[in-house]
Amino acid sequence: MKRMLLLLVAVLLLAGCGTQGGKNSADEEKKGENRTEQQAEQETENSENGSEDDPAEQEEKQPVEPMYRVNPVSSSIEPIGDAKKEVVLLTFDDAPDKYGVEIAKTLKELGVSAIFFVNGHFINSEEGRAKLKEIYDMGFPIGNHTYGHANLKTISEEKQRGEIVKLNDLIEEITGERPKFFRAPHGANTDFSRKVVQDEGMVLMNWTYGYDYFQPYMDAKKLTEAMVTGKGPEVGINYSLLRPGANLLMHDRQWTSEALVDIVKGLQEQGYEILDPALIETL
Which of 100, 134, 138, 264 could form a disulfide bond with 96, CB atoms 3.0-4.6 angstroms apart? Predict the structure, then answer.
């Protein structure tokens, strides 16, 4: 009898343990399913939000192989190897004044790029800094056009260095990137400024033609004709300066902004491709 009681107790204990074990096992399985669902949801969320764990986000950007270089004498754009010759470069000086962001948005809509050469006095304010950041965030390269738009040939070497380096520092502070291109106001370079530009790792360029700073072309229709034909008869240019590799100078001005769509389309209709500055060889 005693042995039968012991056997009965043992059976009951085993049954209880089995039931509890089954319950725990089921609970663990359910928790596992929940964790799997949560992981799947998190992975989806990470993918949609561009999580830091996304390998594509972590992949380093491969440098673009340069296909063009700037002629150091003429500032024209020359193909490297068998790159297409029929290209023109768009550049905009004195940015970001009143129309720089609008110009950038127009270029973005047209699917073309350009270099924006910046002056320091336009990015001293919070508004100016925000404009520069907006242009940069749209993907446009920022060039150095000196801090105060000084004629470098009329100031000391110390001031020349300040005009160039101070602006590079400020642009880097705002965008996180130092400029790769430099253009002196009025195209007035000195031996010293050239050395500073080289030390700063920038490509120096002037331009091949531009008309929007001449009074007769401060009109969208007249400016369009001059930029698309390359001719500026009102300022003594009765022949076309438009040719493969032209480096086109424009400015942050209302009439330029108004003419921009027609200028770009007019150049494209003549068989010219608007060059992406990312394809230009830098130092």
Answer: 100
d(CA 205, CA 144): 11
> Which two three-digit tokens encode residue 269?
């209709």
Question: Is the overall model pTM greater than 0.70, yes or no?
Answer: yes
**Which residues make Cβ contacts (< 8 Å) with residue 19, sequence separation at least 6?**
none
Tell me the Cα Rg of the chain: 32
What are phi and psi for residue 69, nearest 5 degrees?
-140, 160
End-to-end alpha carbon distance in the chain: 100
Q: What CA–CA distances, in Å, run from 4 to 1, 7, 11, 16?
A: 5, 5, 11, 18
Q: How far apart, in Å, are the Cα atoms of 228 and each of 26, 93, 116, 261?
A: 77, 19, 20, 11
Residue the block writes with tokens 């596992």: 32
Return the residue matching tokens 């270029």.
Answer: 107
